[in-house]
Design brief:
This protein is an all-alpha fold. It has helices spanning 3-11, 16-34, 54-63, 69-73, 83-88.
Length: 95
C-alpha cells in the first residue's frame, strides 16, 4: 500500500477538525514549496483569502483541542521565561 493510499484510508475515518488541520498543513507546505499563496477560501477556515500561515494553522489546531480549567491550571506560568528548562531540562532562570 502506498503512502497516499494509507493517508486516504486514515482520512476516511478522521473527524472534521482533524481534516481541516491536515488540509491547512498540506496547503501550507504546498504554498511554501511553490512560493505561492492560497486564494481558495473554501480550502481554509480563513474567510478573507489571506495566505495560509503556519502559525495560524497551529492556532486553529489548538482551538480545536478543548482544555479543561484543570488542564490550563496545570500549565507552567513561567513557560516563556523558562522554555529551555521545560523543553530541554536546562536550569530554570531565577526570577
Amino acid at each position: 500500500m502506498t503512502t497516499k493510499e494509507r493517508l486516504i484510508q486514515e482520512l476516511e475515518h478522521a473527524p472534521e477538525e482533524l481534516l481541516e488541520a491536515v488540509l491547512n498543513f498540506v496547503m501550507t507546505k504546498k504554498e511554501t514549496s511553490q512560493g505561492t499563496t492560497v486564494s481558495d477560501s473554501s480550502a481554509t477556515p480563513q474567510q478573507n483569502n489571506e495566505p495560509i500561515n503556519g502559525i495560524q494553522a497551529l492556532l486553529d489546531l489548538l482551538d480545536s483541542m478543548p482544555l479543561s480549567p484543570e488542564d490550563i491550571a496545570s500549565l507552567p506560568h513561567d513557560g516563556a521565561e523558562n522554555h529551555d528548562h521545560y523543553l530541554y531540562g536546562a536550569p530554570k532562570k531565577s526570577a
